[in-house]
C-alpha cells in the first residue's frame, strides 16, 4: 500500500476525511493526520509518504511551502490541495509544483477524493513498475559484471595465470591501467551480526549490497578496481602513481575509509580490510594476493572497519590448549545459565580470553557450538526439555561466522536466549505445556514481533481460546508477556554494552525507535540512558 498524510488546521475536516475515505480499499494507508503543518513537515521528512493531501491557508507554514519543502528531498511526492475560493492564486502556484489536483473545501466530500486517489494510485503503480524494471536491469548488469570479475579472481588466486601480460590486460579491461604504476592488492571480508543478516533475509543479498557499494566507490575513485572472490569477500586493486609513500598512502586511505564508512552507513555491516605490499611487478602482486586470501582465517581477531596491513596476520594457539578447559567451561556455563547467573559476564570474559589467547577460529567455533549443543542435550536427558535451537540450525549459523565480532553477537543472542529459557523453565515447573511452548516460540523469534494469532496457529489452538488460557495460567496477556521479555532482553543487552539503542531496538524487531523507547520506559521505569551511561 502507498502511504498518505493529511494536513489541515481544521480538525473537523481531518476527522471527516480520516473516517469517510475508504483508504485501504483504494490501496492506501493513512499514515498520519496533522493539524500542525510543522509537525507534518517533520514527519514527512523522516518517513517520506507517497501522497500529501493538504490545506493551503494554514498558520506558520502554508500548503505551498509544505509541498515545496517536502519535494526538496522527495521529488516523487504526489500532492492534492484543499483550497478555499479566495485562494486560487495559491492553487495556481501549486500547479508549478506538480500538484495532482485541488478541491474546494466548502463543498468537500469523500466521494470527490476517490477518483483522484484512484488516478494517483495508477500513476504510482506505473512509476513503481518502471523503477523496478530499471533497477532490475541495472542489478542484472552489475551481477553479470561481478561474475566475470569473480571468474578472473578465481583464476588469479589459483595461480593458473602464468602470462603477466594477460593479467595486466584483464585489469585494463576492468578499468585499471597498471603500466608504470605501483600495484597494491587490498583484501576485504564482510562481517555482520544476526540482526543485520536477517534484515537482508540472507547472506547473499547482504553480500550483494556490500559488493554494490564497494563497486560504486572504487569505480569512481579512478585509481582502483574491485574484484570479488565470493559473496562478502574480495579485493580492491590499486594502481598508484610512482610518488612518495605518503602520497600513495593518502590515495589508498581516502578510498578505503570511504568504503568502510559507506558499508557501515548503508549496509549496516562492518568489513575487515588488509593491505598487501606495493610492487611494480604483476607476478609479485598476484602472489601477494594469493597469500592474503590463503591466510584469511588469520584476520579473525583483527578490528573491523580499520585498514590493517599484512603484518597483522596472527599465529594461533594449539587446539588442545582450548579443549583442555572444556569441562570447566561447561560447568561455568551451566551456572551462568541459572536464573541468578551472569551470562553476559560469562560471555564477555570468554570473548576477552579468546582475543588474548588467539585460538584458531575453527577451534573456537567448534568449542562454542559444542557448549551450546551439550547444554541443551543435558536438559533434554535430565528434564525431557526440547532443544531450543536445532543442531542443524546452530551448525548453519556458525558456518557463516568469519570474525570475532560476529561470534560475539552469536553468543549474546543464543546463550542469552538459553538463559531466559532456563529461567522460565525453573519458574514454570508446573506450567501447562501450551504455555511453555508459547514462551519458547517467543524466545526463538526475538528478532521480530510475534502476534498472538501466529503462536495460536503454531500450537494448533483457536486464537481466542489461547488468549484466555495464557491470561489464566500466567496472570498477564500474551502481548504483555512478549513485550516484557523483549524489554528484559533489551535492558540486558544495553547494560552489557551489546549494541546501541538503535541496534537493540532493530534486533528485537521494532521498526520505530520512538515506540521502542516508550515501551522500554514503561516496562523498566527509566530510559536506556539510566541503563547505560550513554546518550540515546
TrEMBL record:
SUPFAM superfamilies linked: CheY-like, Homeodomain-like
Domain HTH araC/xylS-type, residue spans: 436-534
Alphabetical list of PROSITE patterns matching this protein: HTH_ARAC_FAMILY_1, HTH_ARAC_FAMILY_2, RESPONSE_REGULATORY
Record-annotated Response regulatory domain positions: 3-120
GO process terms (BP): phosphorelay signal transduction system
InterPro entries in UniProt: CheY-like_superfamily, Homeodomain-like_sf, HptR, HTH_AraC, HTH_AraC-typ_CS, Sig_transdc_resp-reg_receiver
Keyword DNA repair part of the UniProt annotation: no
Subcellular locations according to the entry: Cytoplasm
Alphabetic keyword roster: Cytoplasm, DNA-binding, Phosphoprotein, Transcription, Transcription regulation, Two-component regulatory system
This protein's GO CC annotations: cytoplasm
Principal localisation: cytoplasm
Chain positions with 4-aspartylphosphate modification: 55
CDD domains found in the cross-reference section: REC_YesN-like
GO molecular function: DNA-binding transcription factor activity; sequence-specific DNA binding
PANTHER family: HISTIDINE KINASE-RELATED, TRANSCRIPTIONAL REGULATORY PROTEIN HPTR
Protein name according to UniProt: Putative response regulatory protein
